Batch of 3 targets.
Target 1
Amino acid sequence: MSEERKPTVEELLKKAEKPSKLALAYHPFYEGKVQVMPKCAIRGSYDFAIWYTPGVAAPCRKIKEDPDQSFHYTNRWNYVAVVSDGTRVLGLGDIGPEAAMPVMEGKALLFKYLGGVDAFPICLKTKDPDEIVRACELLEPSFGGINLEDIAKPKCFYVLEKAREKLQIPVWHDDQQGTATVILAGLINAFKIVGKNPKESLITLVGAGSANTRTAYVLIRWGIPPGHIIMVDSKGILHASR
């Protein structure tokens, strides 16, 4: 039986370039990749009297009596705001809120396709961390959760902690907690497979950005001794003197 031919470097590079070329063709064709669709039955014009005026006044009164009923009478329980200021987008850096929209739409697509969650991309025209937190506060009545996305460090740490202090709904920074959660899950399974004790192992984190900073925090909370975590940035190993 002959061995399968391995692709050449040129072939691999050409394959890697294909998604970008297709993205430039598909994005303007569809003019975005998420949309809002009704989930209730519309059988005729009378149904609008139920879902809109005058019928809609009844659930409005219920929610006024108890705002938490908004999670029962509306889709708020399944709404997530994907909030970004566009200052740390993927490998692109600070590209601004408008240019960040395709990424935030993509994240909303992942929420819906993989989890059934209705997510909305919200790109803010501000780099001020307090204004970002305030924007999340103002959005809170409409959403069940806030997903912070692609916000530059170190302000991303401040925004996450302040928003979690001020809001009554869950606030999550995907670049920090999302990455840390995936890494922790991978390590748990890796240690099981190799039969090693995590607390007796050395773990190296390559990079000292927001993702690995939160990962180190999560690993310590999991039980890894701080002295067993080695964090490396572009200048070498981090230690008490730097």
Target 2
Amino acid sequence: MNSRAIPIAILCVSLYHPVRAAQNPQAQSPQYQEPVRGNAAADDMDPADFEFWTSGRYRLTPSDVIELSFPFVPEFDQTITIQPDGYASLRGVGDLRVQSRTLPELRQMLFEAYSPIIRDPVMTIVLKEFEKPYFVATGEVQRPGKFELRGATTVTQALAFAGGLTKSAKHSQVVVFRRYSNELLEVKQIDVKKMFGSRDLSEDLMLRPGDTLFVPRSRMSQIAPFLPHPGLYLDPVSLFR
């Protein structure tokens, strides 16, 4: 699956002075959408997950391509690609870390960065290419691979997207790998068997883009190839009696 996409509608953000923005506070208020109540995953959602899925704002990731246009100082026009470390090299101001920023946050950052060299800088920000959110399911699932993450998705829902678990899967030890940086990796273990048995999905973890699900094999499935098939067998020791 190609993780890059060219948006149909070009997202343009015009940079303007914060004082002018304060005159119209409604234009700056993010549109929040309450999760459906009665759903355990929504009710028990981590505040960070809730903010991520309800803010409606895309956050920049490495390899995203951004086009900056300055109508009054075109010599600063540029197309930048976010580097693997999350930084972007900007003409006139140097390197800035832009990873995980929303477009409004990037707008404010660039306003502050260019203000010392451009009076009341005005620019247009166009997100040319971006990465679609995804998760990876591997191990003992029917269809391992990379899947597009569309909206709030829990571990059990993600396993369903991957075709469900195989007969040799260890339901009680589904592992979620979540990377925050090159140095920081979080590992969580989910007991899917217990959740289904108790019909309690309060521990059904909400996935984030880039998460990896790993389902290990059960111990019985590992030794099954060495076990004889059902039936009657001659004890080899009896041949020497």
Target 3
Amino acid sequence: MVPTVFEYKPRLQLSPYIESYLLIQCEESFIKSIIPHHSFVLTIKLKGNHHYRIHSDSKSLPIISLSGLRKTVKHNTLSKGAEILIVKFQPWGAFSFFNMSMKELNEVGISGYDLWNQSDLNEMYSQLLESKDNHSKIDHVEKFLLKMIQKQIIDKRILEAISQMHLSQGKIKINDIASVLNLSIDTFEKKFREVIGSTPKQFSSIIRMNSVIQEIRKYNSLTRLAYDFGYFDQSHFIREFKSFTGKTPTEFLT
């Protein structure tokens, strides 16, 4: 049985940092493969168990955890009766909640208790468990996040770079972006990793493959699809696709 998913948009003060909230409730156990996303995700476990597997490495998710950008598919397992609340940050959003470079959190998952004050987290978590409805849960999370915002200055050139990547569906060359922004490659990568966590190349590749997934059913030829999205050849494209989704393009389409 597919879980019930409720999606909520953030209040105005948090919209520059937060993309959305997801509240997921499972009547039965559920397994889902999650493809890489372009931003950090905060997961709060309210009921039941939540395990995930990347390659052959299987782990149980902490009660509150922050996950960085990934290159490969993640397989999630939620137990019967499980309930989780997910905060999906804007690509640059998580940077404003932590006094650190986001590159330290790329490709990793870390407990919220290693990032924020324990008493603040405990207070928020207790309020969540006592909440009677979904809107109250979102309200408590938002009040917590508003307290945690730090005054981080984000270079507008990084925001412009992200915009260019999205507009080109991830097909634009990183050298071209750096040139337009009047930055050396080294400076561009350093500034980008500090705010976003990943390298510009990794971030752009995530956008590109997500664009491929949106467009793949419009194509009759995988060779043409690979060519249009700038892959070297079809075999390279298939390897990248399987790493990203856990399936070959043919398996994905069936």
